[in-house]
Amino acid sequence: MNKPINLTNNENLSSNDCNPIPTPVLTPVVTIDFDDIKEELELWESAVVCYVLGANPLQNVMEGYVRRIWGKFGVDKVSLVGKGIYLVRFATMENCEKVLHSGFQFFDSKPLIVKPWSPDINFSKDPIKKIPIWVQLQGLDVKYRGDKSLTKIVSQLGVMLKVDQATKNRDKLMYARVLVEVSVDQPFPEVIHFINEKGIQVDQQVKYDWLPVSCTICGGMGHDKVKCTRKPPGHTRKVWVPKPVQLETTTTQPIQPVEPTNVFVQATKFSRIVGQQLKPVVTSTTYQALSESDNEVESDVDMSMKNHAGSVHSLGRGVASPSPNG
Ligand SMILES: [Zn+2]
């Protein structure tokens, strides 16, 4: 077992040893010092780096979007620094700070990842572990729409970050819509449960505006293999079509069929009557069309995500460098 390694039998090793690749001698001829980069540093210190998780919007689309959500902060420049990754500069540091604290933004229901620019920043899509997603609690009885109840009910999914305006105003009662911080790799059940004030377990239907699911065909995020637009050879490519209007939603169901409460019956009627209004995001359709055209490049994010899971090494294209794990 403990035979000494016979180097003379190893052709590769010996040939490498005999013919080393000559290393060019590089003499440093110039040195960049702080003074040389000062102006550029000052230029970008009022900038943020951002990208959409699960999509790579084209530059003109992103520029329009950024100016729409952050226009009041004085957007100076929207520059492409990597596939789907943008550097957005603001006129002042103060406004840049305000943007960083202005709350969550979504592009076609997908979270916009925003971080402050720094001289040593790595322009890549780091693996993201926690993200905010919008969750709809279909037909949730009005008495459970308060912050206390909502926080408890969605705690099974994650931390409730906020309630949307229509839910807060009690304008739309066919569902409650809340922003929840979730882990990208957690389960996303379609039904969750809670025990109501009468001790009865309630099955609560859940709908998600978007999910951080990965596709096994293209590695992209936000869709599964059934909805993938990049089919293997031999398949026809899927084209974009408007999302079908949701005509019916199922509502909460009591688990004891002998004792159905009036509440649930009413909720069903509500949702049928006003089902047309179910679409929560006004701009959704527009961005769907625009970002679908860019689906080809969706996989960078997901490769980062996979990298996080340790199965695929990521990136390499554009200016992006390999993203660190964690
Ligand atoms: Zn796919």
TrEMBL record:
It comes from the Eukaryota. Residues 290-326 are annotated as: Disordered. InterPro entries: At4g02000-like (IPR040256), DUF4283 (IPR025558). Residues 42-124 form the DUF4283 domain. PANTHER family: DUF4283 DOMAIN-CONTAINING PROTEIN (PTHR31286:SF165), GLYCINE-RICH CELL WALL STRUCTURAL PROTEIN 1.8-LIKE (PTHR31286). This is DUF4283 domain-containing protein. It comes from Spinacia oleracea (Spinach). The lineage of its organism: Eukaryota, Viridiplantae, Streptophyta, Embryophyta, Tracheophyta.
